[in-house]
């Protein structure tokens, strides 16, 4: 809220090529000049802003609330050859800059070339129109004028003007003009949700049918059992998934890694759910970096979820090295994210980009890992081991594993894993397009209700698909269902990453080492995290299914 004639700050943020959204540099890395006003009220940077490369610098322009400024020169650029070359390079690469007034973003273009590409022009006059409602700023528009040809060894005067106008826009609705309802609420978006719902109904029907048929057949067989003689019983009783009842609850191979992955997947699911709910209630897009700050905070706070599910599963599988499991579970995702960020940071530093993460921010993130995530994970692990760490399987595990019979090629775990991710990917890939566009292009994602629906659909489809895959596997008398159920759901990540290649080459005009490594690096992190989450959801659903069918079977 402003008083009349109170100082209004125009912040200069970053400048960079239009097609490479993440390749941004400090505004004054181009040889722009600064206004005469020097003193300013202090500005605090949040963790989210530091990680996203927000570099706010004071423009030096003197703007006061409701005080019009007639066109006035605020500084002069002494254009030598070096400065001209910098501006020409920026104009050739379609550089544009971002500014903020009262947290409202404004974008402007640096300059333009003539049709032949021989002469280059710089926009020198910033015409600001600011809308106010009561004592608040609700609208900002920038018009770039004053086209001046870039000629070496000349002086270029930079000027600005400010016009204040009364506006009917409410303060709460001031971000609405940045949203794009025609893009996000397009008919295709609605159609894709409807399409996914149809898939859900079909899959739930299929799983119910499998459950009903197998269990009904079993009960029917058992009711006949009394009337059978020994010969019939020896010939006809044991077949299919019932054969492996003595091995189905055998611990998975590599239980330490497996339980760490399941714990991490459960935590990612909890984070996704909470962040989407928060984003639906609060408009997180109205504040710079608030989405990232929220996600980091929620991830740290949900660490006990990781410890609980990972620790209890490891205990049930008879694991002894629980402290090692806890460390791996706690640092699996942070190490993956920080490792990728560290690699990309080297390229950002080489480019002098604003995306280079400051050392202080790195230390802050490491402190969160060691002093928040690790202790909370320890609490979750201890709770998990003590509350649900006892193996209470419905069937006894045989001392000697039974040999796995040969089966057709399409029943092999490797084939099931590759095919398992197709349907979950099919249910989310339209939403992926909207999410990618909001992250890699200039759209603000705000339809979190859609995202919530898609998350629910993804969970149901994933669970149904892994249950069907596991049923076929067990029917082929193969009891290695734990890793198969996890990986068949996690293979969704492979399809998402393949789709990201298609998106890069056909939907964007990105170029250069920095933007390309940034894109594929963070897409790999996103796909892996999604895969671990889907895998954990698939395993949890399948585990309940397997327990259910073997509980209802009478075993001699």
Structural class designation = alpha+beta
For the record, give the distance between the C-alpha atoms at the N and C termini, rounded to a whole number. 77 Å
Radius of gyration: 30 Å
The helix fraction, in percent, is 40-55%
What's the structural domain tally?
Answer: 2
Q: State the helix count.
A: 16
Q: Estimate the global geometry from the Cα principal axes.
A: elongated
User: SSE string, helix = H, strand = E?
Assistant: EEEHEEEHEEEEEEHHHHHHHHHHHHHH
Sheet having the most strands: 5 strands, antiparallel
Uncertain spans: none
- Report strand %: 15-25%
Strand segment tally: 12
Mean pLDDT: 88
Transmembrane segments: 190-212, 256-281, 293-315, 327-351, 357-379, 414-436, 448-474, 486-506, 518-540
InterPro entries: EMP70 (IPR004240)
Membrane topology: Multi-pass membrane protein
Organism: Chlorocebus sabaeus (Green monkey)
